[in-house]
Specification:
Layout: H1 2-19, E1 28-35, E2 41-48, H2 52-64, H3 66-77, E3 84-89, H4 92-106
Helix pairs in contact: 1-3
Length: 115
């Protein structure tokens, strides 16, 4: 399944760069893909630069282009049926930033160095 997920991730990334000209889809990075065991559904996780409104617009743009992206997956992977795609915002970077922020606030005075 990891190989399938990786190939789908690569195809989606190439297709978005090459064929999708929707202005809502700005700077998007495909971070992960998780495909169901029966290959019927793939969740595509994306990281989007910008505020929450730009992120939501990018997800909408990707959803509207899912047919083109799915067709390209079928063509490149030679699959009879391709997984149905859904796009999810990858919250990993935001979560990591929040953890770092909390940790910075928890540092003792003097930069954490003991004497």
């Amino acid at each position: 399944m990891r190989r399938v997920d990786e190939v789908i991730r690569q195809v989606v990334a190439e297709t978005v760069i090459t064929y999708i000209s929707d202005p809502r889809v700005g700077f998007v990075t495909i971070t992960d893909v998780r495909t169901s065991p029966d290959l019927s559904h793939s969740e595509v996780f994306v990281s989007v630069m910008g505020d929450p409104e730009a992120q939501a617009a990018a997800i909408e743009g990707l959803e509207s282009a899912h047919g083109r992206i799915q067709a390209e997956i079928g063509r490149q992977m030679s699959m009879k049926r391709t997984p149905t795609l859904s796009f999810q915002l990858d919250e990993t970077a935001a979560s990591a930033e929040r953890v770092e922020e909390i940790l910075r606030g928890a540092e003792p005075e003097g930069g954490g160095q003991e004497r």
